[in-house]
Each structure stands twice: as structure tokens, then as C-alpha cells.
Amino acid sequence: MGNGSSATAGQCGRRRARARRVLRGLRAVSAASLLTVVAAGLAGCAGRAGASSSIQLATAYVPVSQTPGTTVAYVVIRNNGPADRLLAARTSVGGQVAFRVADSPGAPAMHTVTAVPIPAHSTVAMVPDGIHMLLTGVPPLHGGKDITLTLIFAQAGKVSVVAQVTNPQSGGSSYFLN
What is the CATH number of the domain that holds 146? Predict the structure, then answer.
């Protein structure tokens, strides 16, 4: 992207496989050196995969549904670039995703919004009594399962993260408790 290094899907796959082999053989190497090796091996693949260097997703969490077919999802969004907007989201298990916001800080009443502003150089953390994603029409989800959340931004495009389905009632953790 911009540096003249675009890779084909096959090249990206070979680079990922080579990076995995290198990772297995370099267990004693420091974390900083290891990250450098992986980054060099995957150069040019981020643009093809739809990832954005300005938006990073972390700490994704989906609690086990208490109501059949409905649950929520939370994710931390870090924007290292200009202001953006979260326009849509989808899951690897299907269903529909809506963005919900509290009517006022800490209020139990929620309303749906069509987009979520992501300010420049900021972190937006989705939380139960604030902005979060409402998932409807999803199959039963069980603790310990991983699903993929794909968020679609106005500027950054599609960015995905693996979210763990957890069940705090049975001892499964959530990032709110850790």
C-alpha cells in the first residue's frame, strides 16, 4: 500500500506459512526480535486482507446468550489515525448486528444508532452500559467457542477480530472481570 509492495493471496499464504515455521524455530528469541521477523514476513499482506494500520481491534468478548438468538458483543477499538466511523458489523455465526448506546451515561434505556464515531487518535471501549453491539438471530453460543467479528469502518474498511464466547455465570471470564 503506497510503498509499491502489494502481495498476491498466494504470496501472503506462503509468507504466513514461512513466518509460522520461523516462529516455531525461534522460541528462545526475544519478543521484540520475534515481532520484527513476523512483520517482515507478512509485509504487503495487510492491505490485501483488508486490515488497516490505523484501526486496531482488541479484547473482543461475547457473553453466552441468556435469551435464545440474542446476545451482545464488546470490543476495544484503537484508532491510531484520523477520525473514522464504524458503519456496520457482522459475525462468523450469522445473525444481524446493531449498535446500541445508552440514552445517557449509565442509564438502563438504550437506543440503536446507525454509526459509531471513532475519534482520531483515541480508544473506544464497548461496555454493557455504553456503546455495544446487539447480536440477534444467532445460533446458541457456548462458552469457550471463538467467533469472528468483522467491523466495517468508513475509512479503514473491514477489520476483523476473534471474540471468545464466555460464560461468567459458570466461571468463564470476561474482560470486565480480568
Answer: 2.60.40.1890
The domain in which residue 73 lies consists of 55-170
My answer on whether 36 and 71 are in the same domain is no
Long-range contacts of 37-41 (CB under 8 A, 24+ apart): 41/15, 41/16
Structure confidence by residue, pLDDT tens digits, 118-162: 999 999 999 988 999 999 999 999 888 999 999 999 999 999 999
- pTM value is 0.66
Cα–Cα distance, 131 to 4 (Å, whole number): 38
Instruction: Locate 48 and state its grid cell.
Output: 490485501
